[in-house]
Amino acid sequence: MPENNGTARLDRIERVLELLVDDHVQFREEHKMLLTAQILLTEAQKRTDEALKRTDEKLAALAVTVDEVTGKLNALIQVVDGIVRRPPQA
């Protein structure tokens, strides 16, 4: 009987060890997937940052152009306004 009890105990320990090994294998696989996802997200973030920088540069250039056009439009408005509002000459 004591030998049978010792065998049952070893069987339980073996099952627990198998569960631990299986869990560890699954953990390693999930950890590998997380590391891969982290690398992909980091690369995507770098591309997004670069695109945002280019967008900021283009937006700054556009703002300068808008300022130039606004100045020219205001000058044109003044010229036209001067022509339209000039009293008729007799």
Poorly predicted runs: none
Mean pLDDT: 92
Give the H and E element order: H
Distance N terminus to C terminus?
134 Å
- Describe the largest sheet: none
Proportion of beta-strand residues: under 5%
Using the alpha-carbon principal axes, give the shape: rod-shaped
Number of strands: 0
Please compute the radius of gyration using only Cα atoms.
38 Å
Per DSSP, the total helix count is 1
Helix % is over 70%
Judged by helices, strands and strand pairing, the structural class is mainly alpha
What does this protein look like?
With about 90 residues, the chain is mainly alpha-helical. The chain has one helix and no strands. The chain starts with a helix and ends in a 5-residue tail after the last helix. About 0% of the residues are buried.
Offer a quick outline of the entry:
The protein has 90 residues and is an all-alpha fold.
Layout of secondary structure:
Layout: H1 2-85
What are its keywords?
90 residues, mainly alpha, 1 helix, 0% strand, rod-shaped
